[in-house]
Amino acid sequence: MPSRLAEDDKFALSRKVLQVLADWGLEPMVQCELLGLPQGEAGRVFRRLRQGASLPESREVWTRVALLLRLDNAIHQLFPHCAYAANLWVTSPNPRCSHRTPLEIMLADGLEGIRRIERSVDNLDPLTLTRTDLK
């Protein structure tokens, strides 16, 4: 995916996903873990981004970026009038997640956990917050 994007687009998406993760209240080390970056690279990654670089050329990193941006969009559709509530959703215990936070599941299960959370939110009815399985 990243090689098909222009450098400006990769930079813009890198900045966007890091802003989303910051809006969720996540520390840089947690942001790096969610993005699938090696432990201890938070400082280097953020320094490079400030200098105009984008996230590393890695299929897994860019898959995570796409899923996290879709997740953020879906959450904001559930809470269209309250960005604060939307941003808290990821770090709040949720009965649909066995009273764990969606963040805990994404961190524990990696890419598959991010996929599961994104799919589950994308399937919620914004009016009732219940599952709307399409047959």
Notable features of this structure?
single chain, mainly alpha, 6 helices, 60% helix
Order of helices and strands: HHHHHH
**What is the general shape?**
globular
Number of domains: 1
Distance between the termini: 30 Å
How large is the radius of gyration?
Answer: 15 Å
How is the biggest beta sheet arranged?
none
Estimated share of beta-strand residues: under 5%
Task: Please give the count of helices.
Answer: 6
| Percent in helix | 55-70%
Report low-confidence residues grouped into runs of 5 or more.
none
Number of E-type strands: 0
Average pLDDT, all residues:
86
Structural class by SSE content: mainly alpha
Characterization of this structure:
- There is one protein chain.
- By secondary structure, the chain is mostly helical.
- Helix content is 60%, strand content 0%.
- The chain has one domain (2-122).
- Helix 4 packs across helix 6 (102-122).
- The longest helix is centred in the C-terminal third of the chain and has 21 residues, at 102-122.
- It is globular.
- The mean pLDDT is 86.
